[in-house]
Amino acid sequence: MPHGEANYQMFIEVFKTYYKRNPEGKIKEINKVLSDILGCDTANVYEALAGVLDKLLARKPLREYGMKEEETELFADSVIAGQQRLLANNYVPLSREEIANIYKALY
What we know:
Layout: H1 3-21, H2 26-38, H3 45-56, H4 71-82, H5 84-87, H6 96-106
Helix pairs in contact: 1-6, 2-3, 4-6
């Protein structure tokens, strides 16, 4: 899958995970901005954002790209092993379990 499409597939689920971890930080500010733009409550901002973005490019479950359910754990390990320079820039640090759960949610 193209890099940009891969990022898009993960975008909203990663933001949801960030929000669960630290809802009072900068993500609260961006959620407010997005909810104002989208005309929705901040509690529904990710669903509203997905609705708009999916009009541009529909997200598909990872299994439609050939991922197997048991690979969600392997993908999490791969991210941790090979993407530290990117993980260092996360809004909040994510555990292996949280990363695996992102893949599982998108499976």
